[in-house]
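Technical annex B. To support the medicinal chemistry partners, we prepared a structural model of the target in complex with uracil, based solely on the information shown next.
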Amino acid sequence: MKMRVDRWLTTLGVCSRSEGKSLIRKGGVTVNGRTVRAPEETAETETDRLTVGGKPVDGRCVRHVMLHKPGGLLTAARDSKQPTVMDLLPPAYGSIGCMPVGRLDKDTTGILILTCDGEMSHRLLAPGRHVEKVYAARVTGRLGEAERQAFREGIRLSDFTAMPAELEILEAGAESSLARVHIAEGKFHQIKRMFSAVGHEVTRLHRERFGPLGLDPELPEGAWRELRPDELAALRAAAGMEEGGGPGEPETGEAERVPREADRGTDDE
Ligand code: URA
């Protein structure tokens, strides 16, 4: 995207706008090897090569990330009291507006997508889109056919009835069981509440898949990487944003939200 060079530096979190102007006037910034002399000069953020003070700077303002969320971090863009998933990324990702797509509870682990593309994020979370998520859940007690049937029929919760979900029982023991759950919506504490409604407490929850993307087995907890072009294309297709396609149908309804500090009231962590 085309952007003024002083604004580019600020967007990347390199320095303030006034520091940027002064740095540029002093000859400290190059674009494609040429020294920029005026702050109002423009550059192509995704393709032009930027250096500041002689050091190369990654100038891309559109980035998409797959993160293996560890337990103990909030899924929020920022929080003044507790660490968030953003603390795992270099500060530039936050500066350019890379944000989690939806949220995982503080104790949930697994795949989390972060993107600067607000439109894609909104579409992926829109209730009408039914993007599938797959979780592995360790729960108390023995799971059996009754639970499988209840999930398949759609579990009634206090404020809504969950859509039919697939429950694969991987291990069933007297003390605890392990299951894989496929859901196509993403309400607050949904998996924990669904199990609770059938008499089981979730003691460990891990998201294995978000839409078309499975968690990269090469990513240990806390690690992240940028999405490959094929993964981004698959995600955009899941969001109804295929290349060359029309604008798609408008999205309506309440989407799963990433709380910022101010509206984290629904988060029980
Ligand atoms: N459902 C939950 O209960 N928690 C999560 O983190 C995600 C889905």
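Notes passed to the chemistry partners:
The domain at 132-210 is CATH 3.30.70.1560 (Alpha-Beta Plaits).
Residues 229-238 form the longest helix (10 residues).
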